[in-house]
Amino acid sequence: MSDLWAALCLVAVLEGLVLFAFPDAWKRMAEQMQAMQSRQLRIGGALLLAAGLAALYLVRRVG
Q: Where are the bilayer-spanning segments (predicted)?
């Protein structure tokens, strides 16, 4: 369970780092996402989810 909390904390750190380092780029990206259809966002989210799960599987299997 502590691994889950550590992973969630790492996500928060990475998201905060992006917002801190590139706030203008993040705002432009958010504006572009507003213009996208929900279907496109769902497909992108599903692909990112699958890639994350595959990477997690590989990390856990190798390490």
A: 40-59
